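Checklist before submission:
- one chain only
- standard amino acids only
- sequence pasted in full

Submission:
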Amino acid sequence: MLQNGQILNKEETLLETAYLEELKHLTIKNIKRHGYTGLVTIIRLYIKSSNFIKNKNKQIKIKIKDKLSKHSSRLNGDLPKSQEIPKFLKIISEYKQKIREIKHKIREEEERNF
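Returned file contents:
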């Protein structure tokens, strides 16, 4: 029977099974270790990305509020607090106002005379 190959030698099977068991144990151990590290990295990425999105969302809200307040103040005729009118422009606007007043007075006198 041994010559025909029907009976296998027990020593060879023990070596093969021990090697396979050790290989199985090492692969399971490595899979668990890499699974844990993968899980930790996924959780870290999730937390960091959620914090990043939250911070960007706050910054965008602040920018939108600033833009809306600037726009509404310009519609009301107010200038933003940070901007000041240069002295030259103030003088020119005063002269324009005086010229308007003088023109108005001239028109009134012309209407009285006629």
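Reviewer check: The mean pLDDT is 81.
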